[in-house]
């Protein structure tokens, strides 16, 4: 199994899941918000679309589905479209919840569905334990950050992030945006003495200077540097309380205050 990035819009990543062997030309797309760049990728790589995996309803994740299905129909391709049962999204053929599995038989792989509300009410993620582990998490977890709380609560988002951080540390995290540099600028205000964060920020700066993607990241890396996964630590709690001039008694309160600081950063 191979995962390829398809850049879209100004900072989105659409992910293509396909085989490394050229003889196996079926593929899946994750959150195809832009059909044009997806079709160019399929044609360039001589791939046939077989599955679409959607994490949530926002247009930059779903906007290309209708055109992709029309393209596939013209060529006689059958395409399964998976998406969250808790959201109203057009063209879904298989609505899924936590505990369901999404099978990609042409890759001999399957993904377990994880409910991760917070960014939206019905947001889901797809996890596969193959090799080091692969996670497609949409806009829930970013490198150095997390999604805005457009529809859910801080309690929901923290619970969702706790589910993801409990995955094996080796798990590769494929989020949907190149937000890493901006996230790390904020993260440094929360943990300015975090040596792992300082080292990671330098690595990310070098990658972006060379126009190289910072994604995938890993659960292990995010556990060390992402303030939204570290609300339970004394350093994050103390700094957030200092910045907000408040005293917090729970991890949820620390998380909510951190999210508000980032919203206004």
How would you sum up this structure, described in words?
- The chain contains 9 helices and 14 strands.
- It is of the alpha/beta class and 265 residues long.
- The strands form 3 sheets. A 6-stranded mixed beta sheet has the order 1-2-3-4-5-6, covered by helices on one side. It has a 6-stranded mixed beta sheet with strand order 7-8-9-10-13-14. The chain has a two-stranded antiparallel sheet with strand order 11-12.
- β9 and β10 form a beta hairpin.
- The protein starts with a strand and ends with a helix.
**What composes the largest sheet?**
6 strands, mixed
Which of globular, elongated, flat, extended, rod-shaped describes the shape? Answer: globular
**Unreliable residue stretches:** none
Report the helical percentage: 25-40%
H/E order of the elements? EEEHEHHEEEEEEEEHEHHEHHH
Catalytic activity: an S-(2-hydroxyacyl)glutathione + H2O = a 2-hydroxy carboxylate + glutathione + H(+)
Domain Metallo-beta-lactamase: 11-177
Pathway: Secondary metabolite metabolism; methylglyoxal degradation; (R)-lactate from methylglyoxal: step 2/2
Pfam families: HAGH_C, Lactamase_B
């Amino acid at each position: 199994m191979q995962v390829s990035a398809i850049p879209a819009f100004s900072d989105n990543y659409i992910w293509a899941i396909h085989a490394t062997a050229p003889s196996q030309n079926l593929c899946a797309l994750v959150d195809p918000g832009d059909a044009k760049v997806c079709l160019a990728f399929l044609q360039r790589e001589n791939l046939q679309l077989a599955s679409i995996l959607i994490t949530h309803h926002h247009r930059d994740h779903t906007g290309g589905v209708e055109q992709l299905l029309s393209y596939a129909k013209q060529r006689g391709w059958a395409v399964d479209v998976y998406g969250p049962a808790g959201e109203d999204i057009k063209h879904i053929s298989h609505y899924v919840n936590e505990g369901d599995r999404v099978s990609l038989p042409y890759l001999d792989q399957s993904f377990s569905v994880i409910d991760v509300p917070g960014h939206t009410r019905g947001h889901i993620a797809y996890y596969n334990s193959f090799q080091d582990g692969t996670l497609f998490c949409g806009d829930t977890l970013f490198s150095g950050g997390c999604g805005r709380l457009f529809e859910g609560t801080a309690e929901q988002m923290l619970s969702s992030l706790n589910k993801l951080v409990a995955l094996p540390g080796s798990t590769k995290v494929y989020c949907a945006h190149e937000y890493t540099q901006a996230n790390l600028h904020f993260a440094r205000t929360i943990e300015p003495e975090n040596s792992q964060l300082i080292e990671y920020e330098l690595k990310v700066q070098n990658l972006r200077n060379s126009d190289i993607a910072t994604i995938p990241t890993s659960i292990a890396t995010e556990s060390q540097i992402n303030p939204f996964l570290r609300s339970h630590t004394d350093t994050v709690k103390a700094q957030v309380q200092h910045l907000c001039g408040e005293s917090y008694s729970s991890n949820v309160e620390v998380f909510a205050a951190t999210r508000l600081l980032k919203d206004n950063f």
